[in-house]
Amino acid sequence: MANPRAFSGIQPTADSLHLGNYIGALKQWVDLQNTYQTIYSVVDLHAMTVAPKAEDLARRVRVTAAQLIAVGVDPARSVLFVQSQVPEHAALTWLLNCVAGFGETSRMTQFKDKSAKLNESNVTVGLFDYPVLQAADILLYDAAAVPVGEDQRQHLELSRTLANRLNSRFGEGTAVVPKAHILAANAKIMDLADPTAKMSKSSGHLSGLIELLDEPKTITKRIKSAVTDSGTEVTWEPDTKPGVANLLRIYSALAGRPVVDLVVDYQGKMYGHLKVDLAELVVETLRPIRQQALDYLDDPVGLDKILDDGAQRASQIAQVVYARMAERFGARRR
To answer: Higher-confidence residue: 180 or 210?
Structure first.
């Protein structure tokens, strides 16, 4: 029996992914290849909700894809593709719009947060409809599992709600109801300059961010400058020492060692010792990832072929699933 499918996507909204992406999601994407038929997408349609320049979006799609391959997403084992190359994503979104409630989508926390930061004239229908497109992304591949963080659980619940609604309206088997594969809670990496905030491009703290394409000297400087806490003893106290806890969390994730063991190792040592060792670990972890990503970017023809092949494989699945759903809505087939 074939393994069940898992689907996830990542937005190409920056010129480099960062350490929080890698530890919080991508390392686990790679591991899922062992137990699922994995389908991963660079979701450029989602990125369009923030109105990027066309040339920036095209570049970032390639940069994101190159890094996904470099961290271990294997195009031979996973379907890796660009969302806009499979038109069924947009087509299924319209069908789901016709069963999704306005109240359901308007309650989405991320929409409220993002729209609150914009002028009313800049709040687009695309931004509002983002969760329905995300549901289409998932349901289009009959995905049984979706690796998500806690901050995306609400969107996945909408996908589950819509899948159940389709099955209730049109009969069981219309849609696969996906389940959340919640990413490890201890994999949430915080900003180095503000350890109470999640590491993110939108934080505004470049000094708090480690990008996968950063040069080693930049990585070392930012880790050595990371905000710590009062005192000097390396202990695991996330509530009172969030800065040190964040450094230990990064170390634990990359070294594959429990935090408690690391605390024992640094007993009697100061924060500086931890920072020096962590900087070396991060540099050596990211060095081959950075180099492989740059190699792919130096061969855009080869990279595009990988993505085109992935889009063709994704389309073979998407066309079948979309046809099944569209037929039940009463859409005429060619």
So the answer is: 210
Enumerate the active-site residues: 114, 198, 201
CATH label of the domain that carries residue 80: 3.40.50.620
Tokens 């972890």 belong to which residue?
A: 285
Within a domain: 69: yes
Amino acid at 26: L
235-244 long-range Cβ contacts below 8 angstroms, 24+ apart = 235/263, 236/260, 236/263, 242/190, 242/195, 242/196, 243/195, 244/271, 244/274
105 and 146 both lie in a single domain: yes
- Is position 35 within any domain? yes
Eight-class DSSP state of 237 = -
Whole-structure pTM value:
0.93
DSSP assigned state of 18:
B
Task: Give 158-198 pLDDT, tens digit per residue.
Answer: 999 999 999 999 999 999 999 988 766 556 899 999 999 99
| 60-116 confidence digits (pLDDT tens) | 999 999 999 999 999 999 999 999 999 999 999 999 999 999 988 888 777 666 666
Amino acid at 92: L
Element (H, E) at 153: helix 153-170
The two three-digit tokens of residue 33, written as one number: 């290849």
Tokens of 161: 């709600």
